[in-house]
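Hi there,

I know you've been waiting on this one. I reran it after we fixed the sequence typo, so this is the corrected version. Both the input and the resulting structure follow.
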Amino acid sequence: MKKTVVALAVMGFGITGVYAQDMVVKIGNVAPLTGTISHLGKDNENGARLAIEEANARGVTLGGKKVKFELIGEDDQADPRTGTTVAQRLVDAGVKAVVGHLNSGTTIPASRIYDQGGVPMISPSATNPKLTQQGYKGVFRTIANDVQQGSVLGKFMVSELGAKKIAIIDDRTAYGQGLADETDKAAKASGAQIVAREFTNDKATDFNAILTKIRAANPDVIFFGGMDAQAGPMMRQVKQLGITAKFVTGDGGCSPEMIKLAGDAISSNVYCSMAGVPLDKMPGGVDFRERYKKRFNADVQIYSPYAFDAANAFITAMQKADSAEPAKYLPELKKVNFPGVTGTVAFDDKGDIKEGAVTLYQFKNGDWAAM
């Protein structure tokens, strides 16, 4: 009996020793998973999850050990204070990288926590220029910033839509106001007059007061800097008030959800912009959409391809460095250059994506059509 126990103990030790050879590498993902833009947050998380699951399926080794990547998801509720709290939680949990956050307003304050903790981060969707202007060595993004997007939007409204008078509304978040400011500058530089500059917040649903003021200014175009959760209801109220101005918004409103929320108020006079190129025109977009649909039984919203590329940038850098330790793989992350779903993934010296394309869309036949 004693011999059997000893034998089992030895066998157990041996099995434990085998499992100990596998290395678990935790990668964090942060986005709003509750609240009015949780559909976008879940889309981001799904993109990162798909990249990690595919890496695990094909097998990755670091330092001679087989790696199992594990996604640690956190909900920042699109709130800056919650964002820093969950960022610290991820650092304390020992994550080696973070894909996130979604909103500029949460990403910018959270980036300080990651920098202090020595954890590199890549946002797939935070577009405020300030994110990569802070001097943090481990901060990157896989999407074009608001300087690029705002410049395109401002010129487009004047040169293509013929706008002479433009009204601008923003939600006073780092993203919404940042994009509105850049669009304002570009529109003025192109010769337009800004006849109204109003603001709301990212929880609002009633815009009648500011839209009534804007109606009196009789603009040719209304531009909104914010997310689809506000843009959709705003469109309904624009129609209710009989405002005939064209409506333009940025990538935060360029989603299927915006169309759903706007209902019959949306028309061919509505336009939006997206950083990057349409999913169908992304080098790996069509295949990505099919894999995403099969895995999650859901359609791509906006940013999941960029989250997928962000996660793969980390994995690529770790493989190049043969290590998951940030101090060792960060130099390789700065040098990555590979064909991603969205295009070539390579960063400039600030951490911005090098090929920051912007595409304009018009609402046609029940969907967004690239122009």
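Quick highlight: The mean pLDDT is 93.

Best,
R. S.
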